[in-house]
Amino acid sequence: MKSKEHTRQVRDKVIQKFKAGLGYKKISRALNIPRSTVQAIIQKWKEYGTTVNLPRQGRPPKLTGRTRRVLIRNAAKSPMVTLDELQRSTAQVGESVHRTTISCALHKVGLYGRVARRKPLLTENHKKSRLQFATSHVGDTANMWKKVLWSDETKMELLGQNAKRYVWRKTNTAHHSEHTIPTVKYGGGSIMLWGCFSSAGTGKLVRVDGKMDGAKYRAILEENLLESAKDLRLGRRFTFQQDNEPKHKARATMEWFKTKHIHVLEWPSQSPDLNPIENLWQDLKTAVHKRCPSNLTELELFCKEEWARISVSRCAKLVETYPKRLAAVIAAKGGSTKYCLRGLNNYAHPTVQLFICKKMFGIMYDFCSTSHVHTTLYWSFTWNSNKIDSCLWL
């Protein structure tokens, strides 16, 4: 509710008593008003020489300071609260305002509507395991991490898009060819890749034909792991990193490592943010999709070419800064960190697309409809297996 405004008579009495030599505290007690109010009245009188209400600039704000603070507090306390819920909360205190007014108030304090990042689900056991891994390795030397061969698999999609694409266009031209991005059902096909790298550069990148199982995984290791370690000059006593997928931890696979005398790094589950190869996958997808491969054969070729082009300095930097990842896990007490690059793989369904689109851009739609804006930036809505590319009003 709006704070109480004192009458002209009360303000004049404050000035009279001030002129008589009374201090702020005595005036406050005599008139039974807060000391801060007394101070504000006197300061205004000193500056403008009057106690009358001065002309205000512009229209008074729809939201009072108190309601604005409540909105900000609710949004900070419950980040997933919707504008509709905040709007209803203002109506309950007698201040019915538009969604746009609420969003503007939140924007002024740096709160913006954004799509929540997708992070691996972490149980308490996962967090405990991640924290134990980080604390046990945070003191390891830089030379130790240089001896690690990092590995992982990733899926590359044909005609996928990894970057936002915006178009300037007029109304009713959304389907013109120059305003669209060509897509193929199910992304036009995809390939699965296995790769590895160390601080000395990238190792082998191999296409996985068919479904990956334990036998196929061991065949890939047999043909590529030791050769990659040799090419990267890791020596005999290097450490191999892999995640905890069943085919990786199968008894036959672990026996293979034992037979080859390869030390395998103990890895906490649900920890893609601790594997720096995730950054290289992102680099690879961005580079390949810029070349627009037209078929799966070209896709594989471009992947291998771009993988070979990744600089040694890029690889070395990722390994050099690895202690920062461990520190981030420790700071988060085993929780998620900013280093996780996993996308929105589970949100490719059209219903979910529409839901997120409405949630993210409801503010823009409301603004355009209520402000009679006729010239609008129109966008298109595209997806791939990793993230939303762009979400735009059609």
Automatic annotation (TrEMBL):
Tell me which residues make up the Sleeping Beauty transposase HTH domain. Answer: 1-51
Q: Which GO terms describe its molecular function?
A: DNA binding
Against InterPro entries, the record matches this protein to:
Homeodomain-like_sf (IPR009057), HTH_SB (IPR057667), RNaseH_sf (IPR036397), Tc1-like_DDE_dom (IPR038717), Transpos_IS630-like (IPR047655), Transposase_5 (IPR052338), Transposase_Tc1-like (IPR002492), WH-like_DNA-bd_sf (IPR036388)
Residues forming the Tc1-like transposase DDE domain are 148-299
Q: Which GO terms describe its biological process?
A: DNA integration; DNA transposition
What PANTHER family has UniProt attached to this entry?
Answer: SI:DKEY-77F5.3, TRANSPOSABLE ELEMENT-RELATED
Give all residue intervals belonging to the Transposase Tc1-like domain.
68-138
The lineage's top-level taxon is Eukaryota
Protein name stated in the entry: Tc1-like transposase DDE domain-containing protein
